[in-house]
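#lab-general

N.A. 3:47 PM
ok so I finally got the sequence cleaned up, no stray characters, all 65 residues accounted for. can someone with queue access submit it? mine expired

B.Y. 3:52 PM
send it over

N.A. 3:53 PM
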Amino acid sequence: MTDFVVAIGLVLVIEGVLFALLPGKAQDAMRQAAETPADLLRIVGLVSAVVGVIVIWLCRRFLGG
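B.Y. 4:20 PM
back already:
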C-alpha cells in the first residue's frame, strides 16, 4: 500500500512540474486530447497501463526494488 501512495505522489509531482513549467504546452495537450476519439484514447490508456506494469515488474525483478 505504501508503494501505491508513493506512486500517486510521484504522478502529482510530475504533473505539477509540467503544468508549472510549461502551462501553454499542457493546455495544448489537453485540447488535443479532447479532440482525440474516445476509442483511440482508450487504446493508448490500456497500452500505457500495460507498459507501466511491465516496467514495474522489470524493476522489481532485476533491480531488487
